[in-house]
Structures are given as structure tokens and as C-alpha cells.
Inverse folding.
């Protein structure tokens, strides 16, 4: 595809994105969409560089991760405040490993639980960073403005469905596209196989849905096949199997039949292409030996759904350049983070699942020489309350997240890490933290690394103009 055609497609997809919501619940007027033509034209000179190969991987922690226990203040004053706020949920100081460098204010220090030791290793190696107190925001918000209410407060806070949607799309439940998919709209024209631009290993996800890009769904072991059409025999007859293929793939004169046949044939062709490519992807098998955890439990990575999802993503990344890919956006997910009860019992295993799966993924990519081309980042419904309900924590707002990969400027905590106490300027209610970094700014920083220009990011992230920091600095 020549450069002018590729640029036209990128700009056309960007214009389509302006038809999305500028604010949750509001549609862009036609005049504003038409006005976007001028903005897109003005941004042509700043069109982004998409040379080489890069992959963005969203690791979604479904249910609302209690990140207050993943990054814990360890200086004596801060840890005492943390312990008073968290009560029975607090992590004891002796079960924390210190972080060597944080970039936070003098006198503050932080640690990670022993269960997260595999992630701490990458942090200390400078390949993993922490982004503190991230959450859903329409624009920067003060505690007083939150208390007063109004349109500046994101709609339907603390609702699983709506906040999952906001994190993935920047709009409440019912959104037609996600910001990962909208990136794919602008990036798919750089790929020889556009269908493989936006790839899910965890089922359908609004994050990967674009205006034009279609998310491709993978199983943990590879392409999801149309089993009936792949059989040599059906009901004991080779003729029956062949007849079924002919009937299904016959275009006919009916437009629905023709479209169905076309989509089915595309699925079969992509499955065949991808199956061949994956067999040549040099990615090691998941280990079958059980890992003993600090909590006394154990896990086997070959039996962990998250690790299996990350392995197929690693295979896709390894096969990417051979398939003529330049930019891909992936999503994996693991559940169990809605810890209203039994949090101290269950959280160590949840941590270990994420930490060991991430460690395997990053190690595999490093061994294949692909770590510099890959950035993994975490996301979740929301943070949780600092206070305990007796056995766990309830739905909150701001939370801490992790970014890992060869391009990450790691060994640092980005943003202003809040005082982990009640009654502060960021405590809006019951230890729910008012975010000081928006999902929009988080996404913009990732998008810049993927090669999107400032004007292109404006089409992907409709509220970007409300924030003054389009690049948070955690990626080189």
C-alpha cells in the first residue's frame, strides 16, 4: 500500500472517530464532525511514525483491583497511616520488599508484597513502572467539585459495568467503540493483515472495537476454528462434509448469504494463515512445575488462564513481522478482583497469578528479542476503598497501575502517590481516592508510543483536550 493511500485511510478513520462521544452520554454534532476535517488536515504534517513493529498489550484485572496493597508506603509515618486506614486489610511491613527508587517526595519509601517479587524484579531492572492513582475523569476534578456534583463528575461511578466500559472506551456502558479499537482504526492500514490489528485472547471486549477495525478473537491455543467446516468426514461421510462446505461457502444472489459466505471464507483463510505462522513462532512452552508461593500455596503456569492467554499473545508478537504486521493491540484478562470478602485470604493468590504470568511473558519476549517492541499495561474497573467492610474492600475510584516492557522508563512511580490515609484531599468518601491521573492521559501516553500524532490522539481520546499532560513520560 502506498504512503498516500495509507495516510488517507488513517485520516478517514480519524474522522470517523470524531463521530464518537465527546462527553459520556453526548453525541458529537454533525457540524463538529465536519469541523474535524480541518483539524485532521492540519495534523497531516504531524502524521506519526509507524516504522518497525510495536505491540500494546492490555492486561485487564476484572472486578476492581485493590491496588492499595500492591504498592504500599513503607516509611514509618506513611505505613502507620496506611495501617490505620486499612485495618485488617493492611499488609505487614515484614511481608514487603523495598523498591529501590521511586521518584516520589523525599522521605517517602514504598514496597511490594513478596507475592509480587517477580514484578519487583522487572521494576528494579528498569523495565516496569508504576502509575499512581489513575481513574475515570472527564476533566481534572477537585474534591469540592466532586462534592458539588454536575457534569464534570464521571457518570455512574462505582458501577462495574459502566466503569469497565469507561476504562475501555471512555464512555459508560453501551459504548460502540473502545480506545484500543480506535487506535486500531488509525493503525490497521500499516499492516499487511489488517484483520490482525486488534486481537483479543479473552473474548469480546469493547476496548478492541473500532469504527472500522474488527477485533480478532483467539483461543488460548490459537485461532478459534469453525469445527464443522474443518472436518474431513461428517456423519461418517466425506461427501457430506464436502457438501456442507460447498453450501456454506456458496455466495448466491441473496446479499445476506453472500456476506455470510464471504465472512466464513475470510475466517477459514485467516485461520489457515495464522495457524501456519504460529507453528513457526519461537516461544517456549509454559512450565509445568508448580511454583511455591510465600503464602504457602502454589500454582502451575500451564494451568493458569492468564499465562495461557499471554503465551498466545507472545506467539502472535513473535509471528508479527513475518505476517507483515507493524502495529497490533492485544487484550488479556483475569478475574476475581471484586474482593468484598476474604480479601486477605484470596489476594495473595491473585497477586501471584498476575506476577508470575507477567514475568513469564516478559522473559519469553526478552529471549526472543521482542521486549523493546512490546508494552504491557494493566487496567481494571476501579480502585477500592481504603477502609475495610470487615472482610474486604468495597468499590472505589483511583488505583495504581503497572506498565512493563523494554521501552518503559522503569524503576519509578509516576504521578503523585497519594497519602494513604482517611480525610485527605483525595479521599472523597470512605477512602475512595479522587484520581489525580486520568485514563485519558494514561491512554495518550501509550498511544504516542504506538506512533499516533497529537491530532490523531484527539480522535481516539475525545476528552484529551481537557487535560494538559498528553504524555506522562513513562515510555521512551
Amino acid at each position: 500500500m502506498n504512503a498516500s493511500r495509507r495516510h488517507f485511510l488513517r485520516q478517514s478513520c480519524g474522522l470517523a472517530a470524531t463521530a464518537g462521544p465527546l462527553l459520556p452520554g453526548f453525541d458529537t454534532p454533525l457540524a463538529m464532525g465536519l469541523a474535524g476535517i480541518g483539524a485532521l488536515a492540519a495534523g497531516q504534517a504531524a502524521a506519526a511514525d509507524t516504522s518497525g513493529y510495536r505491540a500494546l498489550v492490555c492486561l485487564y484485572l476484572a472486578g476492581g483491583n485493590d491496588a492499595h496493597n500492591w504498592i504500599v508506603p513503607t516509611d514509618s509515618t506513611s505505613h502507620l497511616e496506611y495501617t490505620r486506614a486499612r485495618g485488617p486489610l493492611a499488609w505487614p511491613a515484614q511481608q514487603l520488599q523495598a523498591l529501590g527508587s521511586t521518584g516520589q517526595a523525599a522521605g517517602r519509601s514504598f514496597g511490594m508484597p513478596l507475592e509480587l517479587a517477580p514484578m519487583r524484579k522487572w521494576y528494579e531492572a528498569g523495565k516496569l513502572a508504576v502509575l499512581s492513582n489513575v481513574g475515570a475523569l472527564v476533566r481534572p476534578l477537585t474534591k469540592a467539585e466532586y462534592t458539588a456534583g454536575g457534569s464534570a463528575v464521571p457518570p455512574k461511578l462505582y458501577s462495574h459495568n459502566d466503569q469497565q466500559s469507561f476504562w475501555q472506551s471512555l464512555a459508560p456502558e453501551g459504548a460502540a467503540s473502545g480506545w484500543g479499537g480506535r487506535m486500531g482504526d488509525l493503525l490497521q492500514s500499516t499492516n499487511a493483515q489488517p484483520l490482525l490489528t486488534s486481537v483479543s485472547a479473552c473474548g469480546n471486549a469493547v476496548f478492541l472495537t473500532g469504527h472500522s477495525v474488527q477485533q480478532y478473537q483467539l483461543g488460548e491455543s490459537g485461532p478459534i476454528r469453525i469445527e464443522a467446516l474443518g472436518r474431513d468426514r461428517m456423519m461418517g461421510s466425506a461427501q457430506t462434509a464436502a457438501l456442507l462446505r460447498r453450501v456454506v461457502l456458496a455466495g448466491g444472489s441473496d446479499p445476506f448469504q453472500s456476506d455470510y459466505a464471504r465472512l466464513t471464507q475470510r475466517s477459514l483463510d485467516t485461520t489457515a494463515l495464522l495457524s501456519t505462522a504460529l507453528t513457526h513462532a519461537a516461544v517456549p512452552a509454559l512450565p509445568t512445575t508448580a511454583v511455591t508461593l510465600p503464602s504457602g500455596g502454589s500454582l502451575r503456569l500451564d494451568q493458569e488462564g492468564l499465562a495461557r492467554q499471554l503465551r498466545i499473545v507472545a506467539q502472535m508478537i513473535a509471528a508479527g513481522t513475518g505476517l507483515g504486521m507493524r502495529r497490533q493491540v492485544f487484550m488479556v484478562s483475569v478475574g476475581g478482583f471484586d474482593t468484598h470478602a476474604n480479601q486477605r485470604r484470596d489476594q495473595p493468590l491473585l497477586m501471584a497469578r498476575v506476577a508470575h504470568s507477567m514475568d513469564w511473558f516478559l522473559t519469553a519476549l526478552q529471549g526472543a528479542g521482542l521486549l523493546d517492541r512490546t508494552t504491557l499495561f494493566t487496567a481494571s474497573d476501579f480502585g477500592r476503598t481504603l477502609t475495610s467492610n470487615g472482610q474486604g474492600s468495597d468499590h472505589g475510584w483511583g488505583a495504581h497501575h503497572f506498565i512493563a516492557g523494554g521501552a518503559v522508563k522503569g524503576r519509578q512511580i509516576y504521578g503523585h502517590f497519594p497519602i494513604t490515609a482517611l480525610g485527605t484531599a483525595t479521599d472523597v468518601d470512605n477512602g475512595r481516592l479522587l484520581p489525580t491521573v486520568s485514563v485519558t492521559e494514561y491512554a495518550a501516553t501509550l498511544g504516542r508510543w504506538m506512533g499516533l500524532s497529537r491530532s490523531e490522539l484527539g480522535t481516539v481520546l475525545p476528552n484529551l483536550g481537557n487535560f494538559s499532560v498528553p504524555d506522562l513520560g513513562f515510555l521512551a
